[in-house]
Amino acid sequence: MSMATATAQPVERENYLNKHYGVGSWLLTTDHKRIALLYLISITFFFFIGGFFALLIRLELLTPAGDLVQADTYNKLFTMHGMVMIFFFLIPSIPAVLGNFLVPIMIGAKDLAFPRINLLSWYLYIIGGVMMLHCMLTGGVDTGWTFYTPFSTAFTNTKIVEAGLAIFVAGFSSILTGLNFIVTIHRMRAPGMTWSRLPLFIWAHYATSIIQILGTPVVAITIVLVAVERTLHLGIFDPKLGGDPLLFQHLFWFYSHPAVYIMILPSMGIVSEIIACFSRKRIFGYSFVAISSISIAVFGFLVWAHHMFVAGISVYAALVFSLLSYAVAVPSAVKVFNWTATLYKGSIRYDAPMLYAFGFLGLFTIGGLTGLFLASLGINVHVTDTYFVVAHFHYIMVGGALMGYLGGMHFWWPKISGKLYPEGWARLAALIVFIGFNLTFFPQFILGYVGMPRRYYQYPPEFQVLNVLSTAGATVLGIGYLLPMVYFLWSMRYGKPAPDNPWNAAGLEWQTQSPPTTFNFEEEPIVTWEAYNYEELDAPHNEEVPVAR
Amino acid sequence: MFDNFPLWPDRASTAAGNVDALFIFLIIVSGLMTALIFSAVIYFAARYRRRRGVLAEQIEGSTPLELTWSIIPLFVFMAIFAWGAVVYFKSRTPPRDSTEVYVVAKQWMWKLEHAEGQREINELHVPVGRDVKLIMTSQDVIHSFFVPAFRMKQDVLPGRYTVAWFRATKPGTYHLFCAEYCGTQHSGMIGSIIVQEPAQYEAWMSGGTTGPLSATGEKIFAELGCVTCHHTDSQGRGPNLQGVFGKPVQLADGRTVMADENYIRECILDPGAKRVKGFQPIMPTFQGLVSEEQVNALVAYIKSQSQPAAAGTKTAAAQQQPGPNKAGSQVQ
């Protein structure tokens, strides 16, 4: 679609969008920026499918009785909502779109280390996505995205194996992206781009990549084991066949808890970039923020059984996992304090990306603090598997991750598209998303504490008022998410051309043209400055600012 | 006034107050942290908004400050952890003299059987002020026994027992929910816990019954021919089961295990797995031959063979003792 735009303006400089034309030039591209756009279109498609399911769920829950859809349909709706949103939207979202676009540019490289593998990873994602769509259109799955055994292996007659294989294939796309980032960050940094000069966005993606390549194979194996037990009746998880259902939960959460950090860490990286730029300051405690990303990735692997405190694990195992869960909360808290401290004595502007970053701070703080409730053994017993958990993880995975993603999309949109988005609409959308989000999910904390279990198709009448509030909020939130899609599309055709550095921001990506050329830089940049050198950028003698030529 | 808009769940067990106290503490702590962070963000955002000619002041960071805001939260977190652990430990440790109720979950109903023999479906009658221990298993998938008013939840697994306990404090009817997604009618797998004053409860209890669960178990024990090997002396081909329950057992492979509900259950369904030292592997498996309810009855019978005051119903007086956590047998 952007190709048509490019032809309309013959005066435009050559860039990655107008260098080649035709469907083939997109489907066979090895340019990380074009692959990022392929991902952007694909994940947006899946986001709206997942959102549509969410809408139906919220409509069903308007009344206590199960009256809009059948019970089985409802169960499939929340299952497919979870699977689509987690495996086909949130996990690829920031790394595969913004990470793909920015990681090479930010470190001064021409492309990722393995451009063809990068394209392969998109094809794997598409194959997995098509399999998932086929699965949904021919019956779907009703286990919840968690696939708990023995329900998934012996009791449901829905399409477990097909959905599992779809996730298995998409998982390899995630592994390859992570692998590509790690090699790229190690081997392709421009001269002078030392580890301590890396933008925090890169640190966050490095930490994310570690989780992707270490965690994803475990869930892949687990899915294969489920398929094997289901088709060949080999006893692995089903106690009737001599298996152990808790083994499944251990394996599943060993990936699926760190997977939450795959969603949130890149978002934290974006927030660091935005807050630095719109406060015109170096991030307070740069090295602590960088190290906290790595320690979240490491500790994230040691807390999985906090999903299982009432599942039948031993009291002593529960004690250890609760303790470690509090340990992982510390680096998250450190990040929030450092972002707040960065604002101190800054020179702050409230452009749309900054509003999204503020929104992130608000929602992530609430999501993180309610995590303290869930990590507490005594409280966990009461609130686990209730709407309290639903609210908590939406605050992190949707509130946090999606706020960061949208903030990043606005921040780098001029670079990606070469066009400016309408600022007024963008600020309005940020506000609507923030209000709609809280209206949707805050009542669910109360709903959970008063005892409404999750995945309930019908519920006792006393829970109705809170459910109606939540559904009302969801419609507001829906509008908030639709708006950016509309004005981003609008801006591709009608938006003003973007200058190379509309925010006067630090970072190599702003020193190349908008949109960048296929190989990003005219010449390999040589880095002689620290990250977030806003002091030099804003200094009165602006000519001395080092530039990449 | 909040009948249709509850903001706080009923508080009807001894555990509920403990959980609520911790919950309120956490609301205060996180409320303070939220207020601190939000007011700092809002104040800085307003105070340091961009002004012409005013540059940002670059501050590199501060290791003492980083340590402060790492270590103070860490200590706060450790306090929350410790408090939560204490509450959890209490909720996981059934008092020794609890009244026992066997629970069998299946898609999509709860079957409950009192040690005294009363059977109920999707309803459980319990008296105020008595410790009730639930010994639970599932016939099919994983379920979860959740009573919000008691702040109590425990997953119910196929192929093993899990245990939960509570002591109700307030008469009334409370929701019982299945909290682990279990298929089509998951949200229909609900019931009621009916808490009664002791007198009312005794009246309810005296209604029709087939006799204590252990007596049913004794009958099954005889019918299945268990008695042919498990004698009440040391001459049988199988171990003497009197006095076994709650004691350590030496296994043929050298290990020692505690003879709890799960061990007895496993021995019935998979006798070879943990064979007692000094006995031949001659016992056949009863997997598929006995229902979950029959296994429960057998377990109740074997337990009754290890109680000093003979088998059967315990006196209510024994239940009135305070002090719950006397190292009850932990079945996990």
Protein described:
The complex is a heterodimer of chains A (549) and B (332). With 549 residues, chain A is mainly α. Chain A has a single domain (2-544), classed as Cytochrome c oxidase-like, subunit I domain (Cytochrome C Oxidase, Chain A), CATH 1.20.210.10. Helix content of chain A is 67%, strand content 0%. Chain A has 17 helices and no strands. In chain A, α7 (160-187) packs antiparallel against α8, α11 (315-343) packs antiparallel against α12 and α14 (387-417) packs antiparallel against α15. Chain A is globular and about 70 Å long. The two termini of chain A are 32 Å apart. The model of chain A is unreliable at 1-10 (pLDDT under 50). Chain B is α+β, with helices and mostly antiparallel strands and 332 residues long. Chain B has three domains: 14-48 and 61-92; 99-208, Immunoglobulin-like; 213-314, Cytochrome c-like domain (Cytochrome Bc1 Complex, Chain D, domain 2, Orthogonal Bundle). Chain B is 33% helix and 20% strand. In chain B, a hairpin with a 4-residue loop joins β6 and β7. The radius of gyration of chain B is 26 Å and the shape is elongated. The chains are: A mainly alpha (549), B alpha+beta (332). At the A-B interface, α4, α6, α9, α10 and α11 of A face α1, α2, β7 and β9 of B.
In a nutshell, what does this entry contain?
The complex is a heterodimer of chains A (549) and B (332). Chain A has 549 residues and is mainly α.
H-E order of chain A: HHHHHHHHHHHHHHHHH
Coarse morphology of chain A: globular
Overall number of structural domains of chain A: 1
- Compute the number of structural domains of chain B: 3
CATH architecture of chain A: Up-down Bundle
Radius of gyration based on Cα positions of chain B: 26 Å
Largest sheet of chain A: none
* Gross CATH architecture of the largest domain in chain B: Sandwich
User: How much strand content do the residues of chain B show?
Assistant: 15-25%
Report the major sheet of chain B.
5 strands, mixed
Greatest chain-chain contact: A-B, 98 and 89 residues
- How far apart, in Å, are the first and last alpha carbons of chain A? 32 Å
How far is the N terminus from the C terminus of chain B?
41 Å
What is the CATH class name of chain A?
Mainly Alpha
Q: Mind telling me the C-alpha Rg of chain A?
A: 23 Å
- Treating each run of at least 4 consecutive H or I residues as one helix, how many helices of chain A? 17
Look up the CATH topology of chain A.
Cytochrome C Oxidase, Chain A
In round numbers, the mean pLDDT of chain A is 93
Which parts of chain A are unreliable, with pLDDT below 50 for 5 consecutive residues or more?
1-10
Q: What is the name of the CATH topology of the largest domain in chain B?
A: Immunoglobulin-like
